Predict the structure.
Amino acid sequence: MKKVLMLILMLSFTAFTFADNSAEFNEEMGIDTNSHTTSSEVRTIRDIPAGGLLLIPDSGGDRVMAFYPDTGNLYDANFVPSDPTNLATPIAAALHPDGHSILVSDQLKDGLIEYDLNGTFLGWFAPAGGPNTAIIDNVRGWGVKADGNILVTSASGTNADAIAEFDATGNYVGNFIAIGAGGMDSPFCVLYRTHENDYLVSTSSSNAIHRYDASGTYLNDLVTGMHFPEQIAEVASGNILVAGFSTPSGCYEYTNTGVYVGYFDVVSGLRGVYELGNGNILVTNASGVYEINRSNQLVSTKMTDVNARFIYFADGGGISVDDPQQQPQIKNFPNPMKNATTISFTHKQNAGLVVQIYNTKGQLVNELHIHGNQNSVVWDGTRFDGNLAPNGIYLYRIETSDNVISNKLLLLR
């Protein structure tokens, strides 16, 4: 009888282990199941609201969904409509650094695909010229480098376990992080932190959050012992959230130096994480999109029957992309800036307006007040506290009762 019980326990454990390992293998290779709530709808006019949107690919529906960044509520299930011709397993969708298009990384297509802000396919973006598995293969996440170039994870092929760098037009310029640097094995997400001026990379096989300096040189492991971390997100406090896919799966929180803060497992098998404007956390997995809190409670189910992936903020200008020439304009010079830049604008009502400057996380960095009939203001590259803002890309904008105008600049000292 004991032998029979032992055999049953061994078979049960083997079945559990096989299922767990099978899920990890499928996740690493981009093998997914189709979503049930797909659509090929194409809207003629699309804009990003002034407050921005959260873009989340549905890898089972080959599309990009959009959600409100304050509440996590659904804005548009088909911001980039279903496109099985050009997408297979989309992982991360975010605005191109110039803000004029959307770049979507695809695990099976092995690169970045570009769409306009109406969700219309524009073409292959990176590597320029089409897929090239000698450069990137088994692509997961992508991010923006401090100088505005684009960083892409490569987990397989000739350039496996590297972070490849591309210029603004998709041309490969070399590896920013060398193959296997610091023990990096199967990278999933790359994140630039402006305050620390460093780069974090999550890895599903080396089970760590590796840390690299501004030149891509390995520094240390910020977090170790995490089983299959996927997206990393920085929050307003400077802490980081990590989506844990495998057991023990859930949302992990650490300080900016890697000290453990908390663990929230009310939703499991996580892929994407993002701190909402209301202070709660939006998370994704192979079943849907969910809002949780730091008391480990499920606050709201935002969407089900979707294979949801990474979550990225797309800043907005509230301007329809169909007729930009009829809108008031805002620009700055010099750009890139070093010590100061002049932001000039045209608007029928200047007095009492404010130029707001945001970082790429959607956090307000500074405000410049417009007096009288001024049509320009100078930003000296400082934050509210008077300290210098770190190098990186910034959004500046003016909001009125009937309009929002915005643009981007690069701070590079």
User: Anything to note?
Assistant: Residues 1-16, 40-45, 318-327 have pLDDT under 50 and may be disordered. DSSP finds one helix and 31 strands in the chain. The two ends are 74 Å apart (CA to CA). The domain at 329-411 is CATH 2.60.40.4070 (Immunoglobulin-like).
